[in-house]
Prior knowledge:
By secondary structure, the protein is mainly α. It has helices at residues 3-17, 21-103, 117-155. It has three helices and no strands.
Amino acid sequence: MPEHLRRASRSLLPRRLRPTRASRAVRPRFDAAAAQLSAQGQAQLDEGRAQLKSGQAEYADGLSQWENGAAELADKRAQAEAEFADAEAQLADAQAEVDDIATMDADVYALDLKKNIGAESFRSDAGRIDQIAQAFPLLFFLVAAFGFAYDYDAHGR
């Protein structure tokens, strides 16, 4: 800073600090306004601090809920993945059973619109009963023959 500006600044400084009559009259109003602003500022500061504490508590609560939810999500995800793995294993076993069935030698019925499973079942049951009916009279004949032989021996004839 040049020397002539420093000298001018030093000569104006005492004038600036010297109170004038107008400044003395305004001073009480200025002090009252400053006190009012200070009180309002302090109230706003206190309110802001209270909001900050409330916000921090709300944040801590939300963070705790989030952490609990994240832990629960991890547990549920692990459980779901295990269930999916089990289901995939069951599907693979079922597919293996289906593949085994396909290789088995089994009776296969190809039914059209004129045949149905009820009629086919009746026909197969009738065939079994027919086979039993062929052997059944022989059984009666044997029972009658044994009865006749027993009766003959018991009476002496």
